[in-house]
## 1
Amino acid sequence: MEYVLQAELTAPRDVQGDRSIFAGASVADVSGLDRRKLRPLLIVEAANPEWTSVPLVGWNLARAIMRKTDALLVTQIRNRDAFLRAGLVPNRDFVVIDNERTARALYRFGEVMRGGGNKGWTVVTALSSFSYYSFEREVWRLLGDQLVAGEFDLVHRITPLSPTSQSPIANRLKRYRIPFVLGPLNGGLPWPKGFYDVRGKEREWLSIVRKLHFLMPFYHSTRANAAAIIAGSHHTWSELPKGCEERTFIIPENAADLDRFPFRQRELTGNRLGLVFIGRLVPYKGADVLIEAVARYQGPLEIEILIIGEGPQRQELEDAVRLKDLQDKVRFAGWVEQKDLAAVLSNYQVLASPSIREFGGGVVVEAMSMGLVPIVANYGGPAELIDEQSGISVDFRSRETLIAGFSQAFKDLEIHPKRVSSLSMGAAARVQERYTWDVKADQIVQIYNWVLTRGTKPRF
């Protein structure tokens, strides 16, 4: 197990005080401390630069915060080798926790309970919450003495992202007046009415009783003891217990690396409209909806679709393409590594995302960064990422209305071809203003300063 050999020493924290950093410090002393880089402990159980989804979010956000502070990152041992390959130094930049025996056992149990790969994700999330108890117990065992001694200004738990998860460590941190920041939290979006058949196909039976997570041992104390909470969506904000409003900030968890996903103006100057779908090939992601919408479109545009992703629905989708005689319009690219994604997207103009239950929308932000125009289902995370100047959201009440809405969106671009250019610029500008990792890290550092009474409450 990795261990911190020597942490930067700071003056001891006044554990009897409230939120002030040091008791009895003069104005000159405090001014000097304000110039010192903050020393947060970042708890990022899932963080890996070589993976996707939550681990990649955890990695990118933690690294952005580390560039602006003197942070130490604590993660699960499975991420250690990837951290080393990325150039991080053990004991200086990160430490690891080995609770792999517990985590592996619960993961294997979850694989049985979920009923198949790429399905039953609510079951996986629920069981991972129990695994996380053992992770934080080891965090306190490893770093508790340093925390109590005041060697960190605060603790920020970045992952897990699930709003159902708890942090047993929050109680102890509160006891020693160590500020605790939680989030971004996102997930748990209810299944939209009219799509319960899709919920069945996804084997999301546990989502029916999801609200039982309010009864889990540390749910309320985690939120009550947090000095600040970051919600990744308005839905997550709405689920927080009463009394959290003044301590909660909305910051979507996803962002883009502008160097990896550089902007290029997209235009509709001829009759070719290139669409990209990116995601797991499972029912709720809606690749079948996109194929049907293209089949129904009647007009002069030659629409091409590139479907990026793998999953259990692929054979069904390929059969649908043949049945509708769309072989010359639809191409399946399979899985594409993130490092290769920008090159693959370079010749397309639109990202089409008909997903009916998307929490965050990382691929939407990355595509917007490159200037692709997002067309998204108006429900969940992706719809919150765009406005009328940067994308198109499609209202729907059923699968049929979702298909019709996407088909109409293609028709609107046909009628107003210059809109592709203006939305392309608007999408990239919105990402540069709001959705880069550095922007998010700046916002989070503002929250840190507010928690530590070093600054006013930020308004995002």
## 2
Amino acid sequence: MIGRLNHVAIAVPDLAAAVAQYRDTLGASVRPPQDEPDHGVTVVFIDLPNTKVELLHPLGDNSPIRGFLDKNPSGGIHHICYEVDDILAARDRLKAQGARVLGDGEPKIGAHGKPVLFLHPKDFTGTLVELEQA
């Protein structure tokens, strides 16, 4: 059901410092910051030959990333994202197997302009999983 790894998302307390580290220290190709008000985050994508890293920074006080950073002030891995061919079929199959879909269970448009869903980390060995329709 799941396809390729789309990205690994890392919550960061200082977006400019994280961008500089990836760009200047690691020599990575870094895209410009992109505000995602519907998700309460600013994202920066780091392009790698085989996947992406997504840097997440809170956008506003109600950002879900704010809570993550309150618990993890240095930042850290927030979620992993896998591609699926049909997000509704994947959702229905996962729910039938007992997995919990976060929110209202309906896909939302993610940072790539494609439908996404998040799966409860307690159902996936402590890892928040994002599914993105390929």
## 3
Amino acid sequence: MIAIHDPVHGTIEVSPREIKLIDSRPFQRLRHIKQLGFAELAFPGATHTRYLHSLGAMHVASRIGERLLGDFELPDAEHQRLWQTLRLAVLFHDLGHPPMGHVSERVMPPLADLKLTEWDDSDRQATHEDYTIKLLVDSELTALIEQQVGDRGITGPRLAALVAGRTPPGDEGAFRVDGVDFLPLLSQVVSSELDADRMDYLQRDAYYCGVSYGHFDRSWLINNLRTVEWEGKYLMALQHKGVWAFENFLLARFHMFLAVYYHHTAICFDNLLLKFLASGEYALPADSDAYLQTDDVQVLTALRKSKDPWAQMVVTRRGYRLLVETHSFGKGPEDAALDVRLGEAGVEFFRVQSKGVLSKYFNKRQKVFPLLVVEPEVGRVQRIEDYTPLYRRFDDVVALSRVYCRPDQLQKARTYLCEDVAAGG
């Protein structure tokens, strides 16, 4: 085994076969994509990458996989196959992430251009998850996976299946062992309400940002995970004595959103980048090889070459300035009136409403595999949202409404607003 030293998890062990995959061009691309985009403008330490996060998430997935698969008496070869498949699926879960944060997804092509009709023939715009599937099933990485771990029954499409949470096309028995389909269980480790992705990025982001909000008891959570049968499927469950740690995990994510992910500086520069992208000067390609050329460095180069004023604001770090911030769940009459008054005063501004549903799985109750709570002493199993009232708090939308104005007009705008308030406007 080969040791990788990580400031969050300590030693991360990887096998020689995994190193070959880690050294591949698709995965190495993640070295040049920052985990938190423009957050480093507010938190200078937040320069960590998708590459490091993916290694950490794989490490966490290994621990979760050991705990959950330990509930079954599997032949050694099958246990190893499922565990290795899980590790690699989580390692590669962010392969398709675009440069400069999620805002770049706005210039992704139609899904049809990725030619993934066997996986999804929807008439919609592609997402970074679609690109992850594309790189796993149709890129240079596909053959490398076959070469390194194909003899263990692991393929690009099978890894993509765990990322997508669905059976790989034409391979319905991929995750069946002794009549048990392990796909629902393993896919929950990749993406769910309590997945390896979140368990890594919350603690990692908090560490590099220098804040304390993202801390929770990961060991206690993992130690209290179990596998239970629910409506004909084997799914992830949390023992009731671990629920308090899960509630702390939810609060950690809630506070990280407010303090870090929705920080006004990062949100401002996301919007400046979005305005540049709207010019049509830059778009993300559908071809796998061309997409592998995209990263933060490439986009920054495009910004530097552009004469677009929004691009130059990003490059020079001279963005618009925060004028007003309110907690809002929609554009109310008072916001519209403020916009009119600023326009009348000749202030150049834009409004950004940051909205996020902290528990996206709550509104997809019928479409996703649920996280369960088990009370073994009484033999009771139920959904997490039916067990703890705190969980329902996270069904709400977290929304911040902000007005940013041109920096040289900040004092003028503040003075105008103060005079307007004093006059009872």
